[in-house]
Amino acid sequence: MKIALINENSQAAKNGIILAALKKVVEPMGHTVDNYGMYAADDKAQLTYVQCGILGAILLNSGAADFVVTGCGTGEGAMLAMNSFPGVICGHVEDPVDAYTFAHVNDGNAVAMPFAKGFGWGGELNLEYVFEKLFGFGHGQGYPPERVEPEMRNKRILDEVRAKTLRPLLDGLKDIDQELVKGAVAGERFQELFFAGCRDQAVADYVRSLL
After folding, report:
1. Cα(210)–Cα(159) distance, rounded to whole angstroms?
2. Which of 65, 96, 180, 189 could make an S-S bridge to 133, C-beta 3.0–4.6 Å?
3. How many whole angstroms from its chain centre is CA 155?
4. Three-state DSSP state, 92
5. Residue ranges of the alpha helices (H) in 102-185?
6. Could you give the CA distance from residue 137 to residue 164 in angstroms, rounded to a whole number?
7. Rg (Cα) of the chain, in Å, rounded?
8. 3-state helix, strand, coil in the chain (%, to 5)
9. SS3 for 176?
């Protein structure tokens, strides 16, 4: 699995801590991590939590990433932004139980985490435990055992509903402020990471038109 890490501007200073915890846990599992930044608070390319949602949706819908880890101060704004787009099911994850149940009950492809609220002494340990439960035990197997069948059925129903209610990605992206979208793909390493993994030519062409 290719996991993308995205940090918005208010929590950019924690990028290195989050990246280290993520790589420590998932690389021994065989997963890889692409760090899309922000890398530091003074980066030239500044990402808001709304732009994290735009960038995350581009990565997931194009196949450049299989899973996105993002967040903001509370994680709420990043979650709402991510879930504004098709092809994205983003959970709000604060602790290892959230991570495990989201992976198995909701079977999503992104998480938004609080990187300020409650992030104090031992914060990096909580990150490691969350990533272990999120990536180390599979996805979509249902939980608890006696609820496996109905929970998996509910996930299929949710997918069907979202397919009817959400617009195709490029239609939506082309309809919003193009400077906002352009800013979401302006990161220092975006082009290097994105075009190497993108598997959707239409999305790649659109992104190139912005750069």
Report:
1. 30
2. 96
3. 19
4. strand
5. 123-135, 148-165, 169-175, 178-184
6. 31
7. 16
8. 55, 10, 35
9. coil
- This prediction has a pTM of 0.95
Structure tokens at 64: 């450049």
Per the DSSP assignment, residues forming a β-bridge with 72 are: 114
Q: How many CA atoms lie within 13 A of 98 on its CB side?
A: 17
Could you give the strand order of the β-sheet that contains 67-72, starting from the edge strand earlier in sequence?
A: 32-35, 2-5, 67-72, 110-114, 90-92
Q: Which residue has the tokens 């930044």?
A: 37
Residues 93, 113: Cα–Cα separation, whole Å: 5
What pLDDT tens digit does each residue of the chain (211 aa) get? Answer: 999 999 999 999 999 999 999 999 999 999 999 999 999 999 999 999 999 999 999 999 999 999 999 999 999 999 999 999 999 999 999 999 999 999 999 999 999 999 999 999 999 999 999 999 999 998 988 888 888 888 889 989 999 999 999 999 999 999 999 999 999 999 999 999 999 999 999 999 999 999 9
Helix/strand number for the chain, H first, E second: 10, 5
Which stretches of 92-147 are DSSP H helices?
96-101, 123-135
The DSSP bridge pattern shows strands 32-35 and 90-92 to be: unpaired
DSSP secondary structure letter of residue 72: E
Distance separating alpha carbons of residues 108 and 18, to the nearest angstrom? 20
Q: Distance between CA 77 and CA 71 in Å, rounded?
A: 8
